[in-house]
């Protein structure tokens, strides 16, 4: 098979697609060992297996859409995009990586994997969404970003953050302090995510006005939660 792809418009520098010193190209070549890939100008030629050639063409088209959305490709994004294209059925990296959940302090918060995209879509489509997975997979972070985005869009009137006040195998004993000071260690992961997706200086004001309410789960039960975005972590 021989196929020449003229899919790189002159408005997009080849370095944006192939990476500095062809770092992205080397990743692509490693992922498609049955293809011989040659680049001249804005023309990419590849020889080899037909199915692999079609997959590579689809990948390059997806990466071009990501670049047009304003994102800068990184080696990590290229690797994730290849993984999405290899799934059965394949996911579309452009749909996943181009989705803007929230823009804050000059950067956009987007899902990084297909599963994170499915999670965000589930939050949009359902009243109650359960996010199950190991630590560090973005469950709380993305939920917090969706909550702030919903508040900014006036889809909800307040955000309620809660979690069970359960000690991790270590009894702290009696602490002579206010309720807020007592539950702060338990809710710190939620606050960390909140500070990262919103303006930190606005958080005290939101708490004073009741737009942002933080409490342990036992204090949330039996309350009316109309027009609220509730995050239970």
The secondary-structure element order is EHHEEHHHEEHHEHHEE
Q: Taking Cα atoms only, what radius of gyration do you get, to the nearest Å?
A: 23 Å
Q: Point out poorly predicted stretches.
A: none
How many helical elements?
A: 9
State the total count of DSSP E strands: 8
> Share of helix among residues?
40-55%
Give the strand line-up of the largest sheet: 1-3-2
Largest sheet: 3 strands, antiparallel
Strand proportion, as a percent range, falls in: 15-25%
Structural class: alpha/beta
Shape: elongated
For the record, give the distance between the C-alpha atoms at the N and C termini, rounded to a whole number: 52 Å
Mean pLDDT figure: 84
What's the helix and strand layout?
Layout: E1 2-5, H1 14-18, H2 23-31, E2 35-40, E3 43-48, H3 50-68, H4 75-86, H5 93-97, E4 102-104, E5 107-109, H6 114-125, H7 139-152, E6 158-162, H8 179-197, H9 203-209, E7 212-214, E8 228-232
Parallel strand pairs: 6-7, 6-8
Antiparallel strand pairs: 1-3, 2-3, 4-5
Helix pairs in contact: 2-4, 3-4, 6-7, 7-8
Outline the structure in words:
The model has no long low-confidence stretch (mean pLDDT 84). The chain is elongated. The strands form 3 sheets. It has a 3-stranded antiparallel beta sheet, covered by helices on one side. Strands 7-6-8 form a 3-stranded parallel beta sheet. It starts with a strand and ends with a strand. With 233 residues, the protein is of the alpha/beta class. It contains 9 helices and 8 strands. Helices cover 44% and strands 15% of the residues.
Q: Which labels suit this protein?
A:
three-stranded parallel beta sheet, single chain, elongated, alpha/beta, three-stranded antiparallel beta sheet, 233 residues
């Amino acid at each position: 098979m021989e196929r020449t792809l003229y899919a790189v418009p002159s408005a997009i520098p080849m370095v944006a697609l192939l990476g500095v010193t062809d770092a992205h190209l080397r990743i692509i070549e490693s992922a498609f060992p049955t293809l011989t890939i040659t680049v001249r100008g804005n023309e990419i030629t590849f020889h080899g297996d037909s199915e692999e050639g079609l997959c590579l063409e689809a990948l390059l088209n997806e990466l071009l859409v990501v670049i047009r959305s304003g994102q800068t490709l990184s080696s990590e994004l290229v690797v994730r995009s290849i993984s999405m294209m290899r799934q059965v059925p394949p996911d579309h990296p452009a749909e996943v990586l181009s989705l803007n959940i929230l823009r804050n302090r000059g950067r956009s918060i987007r899902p990084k994997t297909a599963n994170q995209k499915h999670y965000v879509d589930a939050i949009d489509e359902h009243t109650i969404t359960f996010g199950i997975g190991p630590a560090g997979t973005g469950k709380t972070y993305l939920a917090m970003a969706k909550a702030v985005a919903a508040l900014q869009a006036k889809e909800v009137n307040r955000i309620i953050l809660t979690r069970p006040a359960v000690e991790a195998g270590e009894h702290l004993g009696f602490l002579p302090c206010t309720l807020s000071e007592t539950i702060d260690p338990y809710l710190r992961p939620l606050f960390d995510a909140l500070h990262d997706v919103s303006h930190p200086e606005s958080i005290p004001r939101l708490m004073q006005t009741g737009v942002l309410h933080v409490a342990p789960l036992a204090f949330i039960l039996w309350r009316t939660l109309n027009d609220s975005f509730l995050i239970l972590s």
